Known about the structure:
The complex is a heterodimer.
Chain A: H1 13-29, H2 35-51, H3 69-73, E1 77-78, H4 89-93, E2 103-108, E3 111-118, E4 126-130, H5 131-137, H6 139-145, H7 156-163, E5 168-173, E6 183-189, E7 196-198, E8 201-206, E9 211-220, E10 226-235, E11 241-249, E12 255-263, E13 269-276, E14 281-290, E15 296-305, E16 310-319, E17 324-334, E18 339-348, E19 355-365, E20 371-380, E21 385-394, H8 398-405, H9 411-428, H10 433-456
Parallel strand pairs in A: 1-7, 2-6, 5-8, 6-9, 7-10, 8-10, 9-11, 10-12, 11-13, 12-14, 13-15, 14-16, 15-17, 16-18, 17-19, 18-20, 19-21
Antiparallel strand pairs in A: 2-3, 4-5
Helix pairs in contact in A: 1-2, 2-7, 8-9, 9-10
Chain B: E1 2-11, E2 14-24, E3 29-33, H1 40-48, E4 53-62, E5 65-66, H2 72-78, E6 80-83, E7 90-94, H3 95-109, H4 117-127, E8 141-142, H5 148-162, E9 166-170, H6 178-191, E10 197-202, E11 215-220, E12 223-228, H7 231-239, H8 242-254
Parallel strand pairs in B: 3-10, 3-11, 6-9, 9-10
Antiparallel strand pairs in B: 1-2, 1-4, 4-5, 7-8, 11-12
Amino acid sequence: xxxxxxxxxxxxxxxxxxxxxxxxxxxxxxxxxxxxxxxxxxxxxxxxxxxxxxxxxxxxxxxxxxxxxxxxxxxxxxxxxxxxxxxxxxxxxxxxxxxxxxxxxxxxxxxxxxxxxxxxxxxxxxxxxxxxxxxxxxxxxxxxxxxxxxxxxxxxxxxxxxxxxxxxxxxxxxxxxxxxxxxxxxxxxxxxxxxxxxxxxxxxxxxxxxxxxxxxxxxxxxxxxxxxxxxxxxxxxxxxxxxxxxxxxxxxxxxxxxxxxxxxxxxxxxxxxxxxxxxxxxxxxxxxxxxxxxxxxxxxxxxxxxxxxxxxxxxxxxxxxxxxxxxxxxxxxxxxxxxxxxxxxxxxxxxxxxxxxxxxxxxxxxxxxxxxxxxxxxxxxxxxxxxxxxxxxxxxxxxxxxxxxxxxxxxxxxxxxxxxxxxxxxxxxxxxxxxxxxxxxxxxxxxxxxxxxxxxx
Amino acid sequence: xxxxxxxxxxxxxxxxxxxxxxxxxxxxxxxxxxxxxxxxxxxxxxxxxxxxxxxxxxxxxxxxxxxxxxxxxxxxxxxxxxxxxxxxxxxxxxxxxxxxxxxxxxxxxxxxxxxxxxxxxxxxxxxxxxxxxxxxxxxxxxxxxxxxxxxxxxxxxxxxxxxxxxxxxxxxxxxxxxxxxxxxxxxxxxxxxxxxxxxxxxxxxxxxxxxxxxxxxxxxxxxxxxxxxxxxxxxxxxxxxxxxxxxxxxxxxxx
Lengths: 457, 255
């Protein structure tokens, strides 16, 4: 565990710039926000000042395989004036998925865009509003939840996001509401200003026995360099089902750090699929608290990397209640000199019974210069637990290749078929058919592009 | 159709086949019998072109073509088929799509237009009865979660779809209960024609009571020690391989 204290951290020049930006933000950027959030931000920036960026390369287990010094060393500035930008609808349409009729809330460089959003025909019982607006209209309700599930005390990026938390989405699913259609939260970065930082903040509250699907996606219009530091908090209602699909397809130069913290509830099911299809340096922390009896989660992920992309998925499932079930399946396809990290921790607390936990991470390496690091960690303090894990990392299976060739397929076709098939298991776990098909197409196009490029090398 | 002349083959540096001679004509069913480790599967794999099995000397001619110089996919396109002893699981690829990809790869290589999904599915549906298979089965991922019997039926279904000139069936009877064995064997019989041939590799005689061979070969220590008629299989069933092991020893001593 990484233990930081105020005694050892000295604020760097770059961190000092965040502190200066914070002063300006508190004075000018969010003056209309309720007093409690000003206090929360002050506490969070103070904590960030103590924690600093986790740049240490020794004794820093949580960041062992991911060097975030490039983030710490860049002078990122909050984006300005983006809300006034008018974007041609086709630019936005190519970043949406599935049915064009689905409701969506769109943010441009971190700021809510009413013009690009489509919130007039939300599924019954589903409410989606801009967080900046909701802070004014529903401030007291948000106060009950914000920063409660994503603690800023121990995680520097969460602290930084909380310090600048202003806009993003508030999603509420009413008790008993069954919404078949997904709602799409789209965060797009224009990349029109160099080295900008945005702090998307999402709060999802699901009502008792409700069922809904939320797509949270990050895309960009240009291949610029920028930093997205996102925090999503999910509070599950008892007996509810939430299908949560996070899609990151930012620029190959982009820095993307996300913290998704879920508080699960009795009899509820949180099902996530995390798709990393872009980004330069990416770190996703997914923390699920299995805090009430009978809750379950299915956490799946797929990452497709090439070039020098680096994607790190840290998943922590903390079983603090009995009769809880969790399963994880993460798969990666790596080409070029890319690097992936999967660090899955499963914690089962003392005295907790009947826990079922399963974790699998598999990587297919298309290039001998790509690297995949997998690190499962189990912290089991109870006997009444069924745990399993599997990890695999390697080139294409020779026996499978031969099987396909023995049916007449040539090497090129056989490799294509098997590469696509490797991703299919995760894509199949997407419940919504139209979204599953859309993701399947994106993945297929991407692999096709790589394989074409690889064959012409 | 197939002529194997003094074939030697190795896995890595270990020699397994030590001079196999075999001639299979159109319309014939040949059984290759032998105890475990005799080289039966090696013969099947080396003919199909598995990269782990290397032919070190000798020849194999398939319709006059030098089989050993051909890529595995080109052997399939020329009309050779291997039914695997352990069919490979390919999660993520549907069985019907897998068969269509192979079917169209063969057509393409022969200059025949590829078949579309709908036409292929009709074609596939017309073949299901050969092995008593349900259509829902073909929409599952290739061999994933299939029982032993389902895997073997799947292999014979592929044989029916790809319609090879020469089918090598490697231990197609292993892992099957009596009912599944009968059904699979009946499927094989339905695919027997005057213009194709089957090389049946097996440890036991039992499949041969359904699929009657024209010739039985006993393979021991990487050599065919005796060839004969179908009655030889029954003899092995009652007497075992001991007699042939002795013959193999004599052969080794002689060599």
